[in-house]
Design brief:
It contains 10 helices and no strands. The chain is an all-alpha fold.
Length: 233
């Protein structure tokens, strides 16, 4: 009888554990974590492949650089799904742009980040000039999208508070690299929202939902849309 009770108790415990595992497998939080890992893996793959491409460009190995460029271009043909939603087909992904390593742009970007960290407006002004130089001189640089984003951050910050200009640069970040992992579209929508351009903000948030690669950014954009809808937009 004792062994029978042990078997029964063991069976009940196994059933409980199986239920816990099943609950975890279908838990929304677990799904979100897994989806975020997929999105991050996609972004990491693109970033690593871009680094390989730039490495071969710097070293002068054009044969391997061409292979890496072709592989980057191939990312545009891969169907990707938003697993956080019950979509029937693949998500329409923004095309991956092949941006190039430009040493001078890297130097200007590094300087800009140093000046951005300062608490003095004069230093912020220097940061603006460094980032703008990248956009004007090396728009094909892999630092150009980030430079545009940094300009958006600066203009939306305490010292400038120029939200219209900030929106322009956030949007430029996305235009330079539609596959960027930076929350450029969400930020652009926030700027439009802040200055009362609500209809334009709605369109920007919709673009953020469909064009952003980060699941959390999509969720924030959807929340902004719900808030604006309650206000009649």
């Amino acid at each position: 009888m004792r062994s029978t009770r042990i078997i029964v108790t063991g069976g009940l415990l196994a059933a409980v554990l199986a239920g816990i595992v099943l609950a975890q497998a279908t838990d929304a939080g677990t799904e979100l974590a897994l989806v975020e890992r997929v999105v991050k893996a996609r972004d990491d793959y693109k970033a690593s492949l871009t680094e390989v491409y730039n490495f071969y460009l710097r070293s002068g190995d054009m044969a391997k650089a061409t292979r890496a460029e072709r592989e980057l271009a191939g990312l545009n043909t891969i169907e990707q799904y938003d697993y956080s939603k019950q979509t029937a087909g693949p998500v329409v992904q923004a095309p991956v742009k092949v941006l190039k390593y430009v040493p001078e742009a890297d130097d200007y970007f590094a300087d800009g980040k140093v000046f951005t960290a300062s608490q003095f407006k004069a230093q912020k002004d220097l940061a603006l000039k460094r980032f703008q130089k990248i956009l004007d001189t090396w728009p094909e640089s892999d630092k150009a999208p980030a430079a545009a984003f940094e300009l958006g951050e600066l203009y939306s910050g305490f010292f400038f508070r120029d939200y219209d200009l900030a929106e322009k640069y956030y949007k430029q970040c996305y235009d330079l690299d539609p596959a960027t992992s930076l929350p450029a579209l969400l930020k652009a929508g926030d700027m439009l929202n802040k200055v009362g351009r609500y209809k334009e903000a709605v369109e920007m948030y919709k673009l953020a939902v469909t064009g952003s690669r980060d699941v959390k950014v999509k969720e924030k954009a959807e929340a902004r849309l719900r808030d604006l809808a309650r206000k009649g937009y």
